């Protein structure tokens, strides 16, 4: 396609300048066929003896800084041609040869020279029209225009082909569900779009500012975990743009000193905003130390890929969160069934602490229980006895001996010795009350923890009040489970009891989701249950967790 277009342009300009024309590559190999073959041109191109397979080699003629068409000697003494570089992406990749002509000022001198080829050369020179200096200058300008047109044509066709290739790769990536499973794969795919891209980064927001959360590239890898300067554009903008940002000569911009300090001098960079709704999740950046510029198409293609990855990540996060909610709701149902089998209120309090540790998100759980004038404390996780006693005394001080205040109190976030704690009070009656306290690591998880802890406290209070008691006639020994199940099935069982989804079990045990499903099916068959709810109830009935410690 390009060759045909170049041939049309060459034919037109050969007719305009009345010169023979040919376009060759950097090695002198013809790209087009000769247009407007003249007698002198035919002698130079085909009749003259020459050692090289081509009539000239552009590399041998190139002069440093050669940017415009020039008149060069060719063939016999006094004969001239015009050679013009065709620039593609700032590099001379093709050359236009136009000739052969004789300058008016030197024709008489040429005619006096003895010619070894005899009559052909003499007759050709005599019939050729000698060009005055102004005519040669006009032809130089015409060929310079031709070189620009050819360069733009080739560049445009290459951009078109490049866009097609980018489009095919983008389609392949977005249709492969595993291609963008995490940010590292996103960075790999961005680098794979163009060989000139030698680094890719994901810059994420953290409490201290902006940090390189992921990096790809030989030099970029050492930037992982580093904090980005506050002046680093486009992070310094109070209202970040919704479009990609292209930066050229980044290493010469003081705002990019972060890279220079770490031995990286990017010449061109593109930054893509990772926006979810109106929230800025982070920035994805690609760059090159070798190339002075990057294709314009990378801006739009990269933006599409980054947004697709972000949406996939959010969907995956939502799926996992939904699975987690469903599992915790299922656990709450089984908690009631398991507690229904327990007659001792102390055992119910202990079970509340254990279940809260499974449902909560923090490092410790504490249950303070007051009954018949006696106050007890049960704690799980990273909470020592002294801290538990201090918390118990504080609860007694705030709620009083009879716990009447627990009737009207609602769950609240409190500071307990420097820790953020969700405190959920519950009241049973007759002076019996309790407080369920759960450490909250992240503030955004407080609301979710409040819902589950409130439900758990309500179930425990209901069971203690005697409104839903049941017998415990289970006679199965816990050792039966370890005898019936394999070691891997026991690992899966442990995570099932913790309320993990199939995907979470797969990630923790480094096995496929399909394998997890097979293990769960085997566990159900060996133990004789039909679903997870029955499994959790049976395991807690057998006091599985206490025996495992």
For the record, what CATH class of the largest domain applies?
A: Alpha Beta
What's the main sheet like? 5 strands, mixed
The assigned CATH architecture of the largest domain is 2-Layer Sandwich
Sequence stretches where pLDDT stays below 50 over 5 or more residues: 50-54, 467-478, 544-549
Share of β-strand residues: 15-25%
| Helix percent band | 40-55%
Q: What is the assigned CATH homologous superfamily of the largest domain?
A: GAF domain
Radius of gyration: 40 Å
Q: Can you give the mean pLDDT? A: 81
Work out the count of structural domains.
4
Q: Give the number of helices.
A: 18
**What distance separates the N and C termini?**
75 Å
Question: Which structural class fits the helix and strand makeup?
Answer: alpha+beta
Structure description:
Helix 9 packs parallel to helix 12 and helix 10 (345-359) runs antiparallel to helix 12. This protein is an alpha+beta fold. The longest helix is centred in the middle third of the chain and has 44 residues, at 297-340. The protein has four domains: 2-159, Beta-Lactamase, CATH 3.30.450; 183-317, Beta-Lactamase, CATH 3.30.450; 342-464, 2-Layer Sandwich (Beta-Lactamase), CATH 3.30.450; 479-548, Orthogonal Bundle (Arc Repressor Mutant, subunit A), CATH 1.10.10.10. The chain is elongated and about 135 Å long. The chain has helices spanning 2-17, 39-47, 58-61, 107-111, 119-127, 133-175, 183-192, 257-261, 297-340, 345-359, 385-399, 446-464, 479-484, 487-497, 502-509, 513-527, 532-541, 544-548, and strands at residues 20-25, 70-73, 79-88, 91-103, 130-131, 199-206, 209-216, 245-248, 268-276, 279-288, 364-371, 374-381, 412-416, 419-429, 432-439. Strands 1, 2, 3, 4 and 5 form a five-stranded mixed sheet that branches. The protein has a five-stranded antiparallel sheet with strand order 7-6-10-9-8, with helices on one face. The protein has a five-stranded antiparallel sheet with strand order 12-11-15-14-13, sandwiched between helices. Residues 50-54, 467-478 and 544-549 have low confidence and may be disordered.
